[in-house]
Amino acid sequence: MDELAALRQFFGFSAFRAGQQTLINAVLSGRDALGVMPTGGGKSLCYELPALLLPGLTLVISPLISLMKDQVMALRNAGIPAGCINSAMSMDELREAYTDARYGAYKLLYVAPERLLTDGFCALAQELEIPLVAVDEAHCISQWGQDFRPSYLKIVDFLQQLPRRPAVAAFTATATAQVRTDIVRILQLREPETVVTGFDRPNLRFDVLRPKDKRDALLQLLSERRGKSGIVYCATRKSVEQVCGFLQEAGFAATRYHAGLDTEERRKNQEAFICDRSPVMAATNAFGMGIDKSNVSYVIHYNMPKSLEAYYQEAGRAGRDGSPADCILLFSSGDVTTAKYLIFNAAENEELTDEDRQIVQAQDLARLEVMTGYCKTQDCLRGYILDYFGQPHEKICGNCGNCQAEFETRDLTREAQMILSCVVRARNRLGYCVGMTALSQTLYGGRSARVRELGLDALPTYGLMHAVPRTQIREWIELLEREGYLEANPVHGGIDTTPKAAGVLFSGEQVLAHVRRSPIQEPGPKKKAPAPKADDPLLAALKAVRFRVAQEQHVPAYIVFSNATLLDMAAKRPGSMEELLEVSGVGHVKAERYGAAFLTEIKQYERTHREES
Ligand code: ADP
Ligand code: MG
């Protein structure tokens, strides 16, 4: 069987995605490979498909047990024999897996890196024919990556003690050059076929909102998305608790995940999310690496993450099956303060020297700066992300909040004069520059201890903007930064005027700002966002069938068919098995297993539909 036939037969896809074919050909011919593709780009297929065509067994090294379980379940469901070996299995289960592997029951075997050098596993590996070792989430091997796992370093020793070195294929979504070279160097890849695909995810719509009240905004966003599954990321455990609490109170089937919960609860909650019993997950960034749930239709960040890499990876968990999905970040300037706090109080890493630690901190601050820039830019959000990952793009993507927003030009000369002169006066009084909080409080006329201690309440500009909401004052200050009248010191946050400010303060220059109109920023009789299109009734019916089938088979719904597959099915309305196989994501085994139920539903639908019309 050739690759394309296997793609159709087992996975039900009609074409390869970017990069897949090159990587697959390389490993099939025995070469090493490195695949760098965004989350959801289809990395798994690059080793799953070769595993089917190669003799013997392909070993997949994967960092997370949950991820492993999920993938094995999906493969088995598609009729591909796969197994796994990890520390969560009982002795009996392990024994069974070893026996099955020994007599050749699997084409793919998933294993956790810390298992590799155990006696039992080494003995097994000596006996088997292993043409290919796939290393998933390979950035875990690099100290520079975000999820460094020392156990990944064992992979090299493991490979060395095999009777024959297999082809080694590494996969990651982390694009930085440093991580990439680390992977090749540490894993000792031999002239790997390297593919770095585009990082754009056109089906994701990006947006940044600055609501007056995040709680209200979140409730509003979720009520527009009832019945859909999504993740709400929060910066801290405490905020996960709060968010999960008020969502549940408002009647959403939400659950939570963070490192403060015990293993059992984490497992239970994750399961509830995966199976759509609790379609909304409130979580810290502890949740998600390896979450392959393909029907996540939105990822909302309740707080700004620490870096754009982290943001893109987390947001990228939406829309993995290619259907449209939203990535929304709720920003407030308090998020910057929290993020800095987290950077300066990061958990001590004992392996680092003081000097290393300072380097890491400086890197973190630089990354934070990039992230903050994303929240403040008025240009295309997708463009901002792709610029950062060094990928060329169109100027306007048309599918992000900024590209779709209406902008208006406002004369902010008076406001600018007030703010700039407040900065100058505070600096003259104190001999240094105050930060965002003190500055906005002074303008607002706030009574905080800090303002009084510093004597800022004695400035003539104190309370000059008492009629303006504080969030608005902050926005104007940020706008003046963006337009180059003010500049903030990224480390201690003091804000100072630039030479450009003099024109406004002393020569009557106008400040005309291009500001975005957004329904959440300014409630009132503004144009309402278009109501989301109601699900096509056939699609809804097919989803109901999927739900029933999933219950019967005790698997999560997306393992049966992805949303993308159901959408395609609703559009094509297959009338026979042959036609069903034309639907994207329907392979032979799945067609045989589930096809009848879906075909019956479609027939039924067409009959009643004809009677109605
Ligand atoms: P990642 O690169 O993040 O590991 P996955 O391998 O989990 O991504 O793939 C994400 C989704 O893309 C899965 O639902 C998978 O079935 C789908 N997919 C992969 N390859 C193709 C293809 N050639 N055509 C259509 N869908 C694909
Ligand atoms: Mg993956």
What does this structure look like?
This protein is of the alpha/beta class and 613 residues long. The chain has four domains: 3-196, P-loop containing nucleotide triphosphate hydrolases (Rossmann fold); 204-403, Rossmann fold; 409-519, Arc Repressor Mutant, subunit A; 537-612, DNA polymerase, domain 1 (Orthogonal Bundle). The protein is 46% helix and 13% strand. It contains 26 helices and 17 strands. The strands form four sheets. The chain has a seven-stranded parallel β-sheet, sandwiched between helices. The protein has a six-stranded parallel β-sheet with strand order 8-13-12-9-11-10, sandwiched between helices. Strands 14-17 form a two-stranded antiparallel ribbon. α7 links the parallel β5 and β6. α22 (537-553) crosses α24 (563-572). It is globular and about 85 Å long. Magnesium ion is lined by residues 43-44, 136.
Uncertain segments are 520-533
Query: Structural class, from helix and strand content?
Result: alpha/beta
- Work out the oligomeric state of the chains in this entry: single chain
Q: What is the radius of gyration?
A: 27 Å
Q: Kindly report the CATH topology of the largest domain.
A: Rossmann fold
What's the CATH class of the largest domain, please? Alpha Beta
Distance between the termini: 46 Å
Choose one word for the global shape. globular
Strand order of the largest sheet: 3-4-2-5-6-1-7
| Count of DSSP H/I helices | 26
- Examine the secondary-structure arrangement and name the CATH architecture of the largest domain: 3-Layer(aba) Sandwich
Under CATH, the homologous superfamily of the largest domain reads P-loop containing nucleotide triphosphate hydrolases
Counting DSSP E segments of at least 2 residues, the number of strands comes to 17
The kinds of small molecule bound in this structure are: adenosine-5'-diphosphate, magnesium ion
Strand percentage lies at 5-15%
Major sheet summary line:
7 strands, parallel
Task: Estimate percent helicity.
Answer: 40-55%
Count structural domains: 4
Q: pLDDT average, as an integer?
A: 89
